[in-house]
């Protein structure tokens, strides 16, 4: 046994020596050649988003990432790097995001059962009742934040409750840009902090981190930023003349007509939050949350289950189908109020496949870029320019903003800088949470501030308010990059790698 261990140790040492020697023999790329696949990628993505608009994430952007990987592979072949080496690096990259992909699938399952059980509708129901004319703008932030945390989608929040809040605020005589700014600030706070959000899952996947560690670390910048935003809107609210009293009875009635609303429904999210706080493995917490959603649907929503099964009385087999469809495929629950119908639908696990597909294609691009030495060349150039931690953070923020402006897509503002900067952060001994937080603080939230970005175009179209009108009032969105840069400048809460 001892001889076998010694022989294996010798073999392992010899393999490391050979790999190290091969790396030393690998030709070094110039910065111009190394960045060429990125430039091609950005140009093609800009064209693609211009043609497909909001539908670019459905698959065309993923193929563009593969084309970018093909350009990188051509450079690799020119540098005498074998196809096998590049494929091996892609495989390692894909292995690194296995956990993220599984979490995304469970997130889709959780969203489906929490809708079916009435958990998400209950959050909306009670949230809508905190409205008051004087505190309306602050209430907009709180309501949209709660709904966005529950659903993981700023787009859905804006397209449903956001529209209703715009109408209510206009009836009070408030400027629409001001209302839209409050709605967007709350919606994007929830989008950032929700484990159901695709961007919240995407950022740690690109940075090589873990979902709930990312959320905990991101709260250090996100919570102070939203508190400052709330304070500003509270001050604005006290200066506004809001005498109208607005009723939300129609929305509340539509929810109660379809769902059984009970405060006990909040037990499920409370249990999941406690589990997350106790550092329970994410897959375990999400699975238990999904099963609690199923249990609460059986307890509280039997009339709804019968309706969805097209039966007068709930049968076991049809109930099973309804629940499994909510978990895996889709669920759509119609109400008497059209404003709520878009909100009360979920794609289940299948709804996460677009983001999973994007991650896989990004790993192909990043794997080939790593195999040919392009990421090393880019990281080396960034490190030469970024003499300090602050400069590294600043260059990340600038890259995210540039991608949002040029490629016009928030997902790409996370994917491309995430793969480019990953090694640079690790080389400086910085934990991946630093990169994932910076990607969200500067990539996710600023996309809505660019009129031709898919997010900016979507929000302005849905809310009926131009980006120019709400830009100043989207305080949370433009303040977030400054907050993360402030932390970097003073060296506050900069997490180091554990050795």
Helices and strands, with pairings:
Elements: H1 2-25, H2 31-52, H3 60-78, H4 83-96, H5 98-116, H6 119-128, H7 136-151, H8 154-171, H9 176-193, H10 198-207, H11 211-239, H12 249-258, H13 267-277, H14 282-300, H15 302-308, H16 316-328, E1 331-332, H17 338-341, E2 345-346, H18 353-371, H19 374-385, H20 389-406, H21 410-427, H22 432-444, H23 454-463, H24 467-470, H25 475-490
Antiparallel strand pairs: 1-2
Helix pairs in contact: 2-3, 2-19, 3-18, 4-18, 5-14, 5-16, 6-7, 6-12, 7-8, 7-9, 7-11, 8-9, 8-23, 9-11, 10-18, 10-21, 10-22, 11-22, 11-25, 13-14, 18-21, 19-21, 20-21, 20-22, 20-25, 21-22, 22-25
Written overview of the protein:
It is built from 25 helices and 2 strands. Helix 7 packs antiparallel against helix 8 and helix 8 runs antiparallel to helix 9. The protein is an all-alpha fold and 499 residues long. The protein has one domain. The radius of gyration is 24 Å and the shape is globular. It has a two-stranded antiparallel sheet.
Task: Sum up the structure in keywords.
499 residues, mainly alpha, two-stranded antiparallel ribbon, 25 helices
Brief summary of the model shown:
This protein has 499 residues and is mainly alpha-helical. It contains 25 helices and 2 strands. It has one domain.
